[in-house]
Amino acid sequence: MLVGLLCGGHVLIEGVPGLAKTLAAKTLARLLDLDFQRIQFTPDLLPADLTGTPIYHPPSGEFRTRKGPVFTQVLLADEINRAPAKVQSALLEAMEEGQVTLGETSHRLPDPFFVLATQNPLEQEGTYPLPEAQLDRFFLKLHVDYPSREAEQRMVIAHSSGSAPTPRLRIGREQLAAAREQVREIHLAPELLDHLLDLTAASREPQRFGADQLAPLIAHGISPRGSIALARAAKALAFIRGRSYVVPDDLYSIAHPVLRHRLLLSYEAEADGHTPDQIIDQLLKTLPTP
User: Fold this and answer.
1) Closest CA to 95 of 223, 4, 29
2) What CA–CA distances, in Å, run from 251 to 122, 189, 220?
3) What is the CATH architecture assignment of 186-286?
4) Coil, strand, or helix at residue 182?
5) Measured between alpha carbons, how far is 129 from 135 in angstroms, rounded to an integer?
6) Strand (E) or helix (H) holding 14
7) Which residues belong to any copy of the ATPase AAA-3 domain (predicted)?
8) CATH T-level topology, domain 1-163
9) Is the pLDDT of residue 6 over 80?
10) Is beta strand 52-57 parallel, antiparallel or unpaired with respect to 62-67?
11) Distance between CA atoms of 236 and 254, rounded to whole angstroms?
């Protein structure tokens, strides 16, 4: 989540209910002193419920703008796949353009503007799955799994005794803005850039890189947007780890969240139970580490 925020990207979180996705978003906003809004996506939601709308004011004879919950700094879009296509498109347009048009007036969104969208991978009734082209707009896709037994034990004890920690402000908005500038200055060596480009190229033409067995499993490879996102995410991760340069482990650590929703598998691969993460693992093993 911090990598996405530092890079100015947005994050899609996939996981079953009850894994504290909402709590994580609220905690992040409080730690960084950012405004937070949550909207529950439902099938009857309208774009205006998200973006707002001009409202006529009879005494003055003017239209006044009522801004929706999208005008915040950290927006939790809960169960985004429950909203119809028009609402999804309205949110994705705001994510891409950084502004919302209400009537004839365009309104800039706050800076930073960070969207955390969640979706439930199990329950598919009454849902509108995000098309692949819209998934590609998300900077990262995270999988949240069940916690370990030890972690869950600590959670149960903390909540049952009322001793759950309260997040406190750690980094102000000015420090966050400065950190985002520093991330851009992180050094990515030419050899690592070539390695990154080989990885995305291998997803498009696996035969050229000696991965013939992967060709039938990949329907569409990773787009150039994926290459850009991987480079930026690796820089942000290096910054978080306290380095001014990227090492191969930064690329490998962040490759799956950046690429898993940008790699489209063939029907045969899905029928055989392959996942994008498995294909990414095989691509990484195929290419020699610089």
Assistant:
1) 4
2) 30, 12, 21
3) Orthogonal Bundle (1.10)
4) helix
5) 10
6) strand 11-14
7) 10-140
8) Rossmann fold (3.40.50)
9) yes
10) antiparallel
11) 10
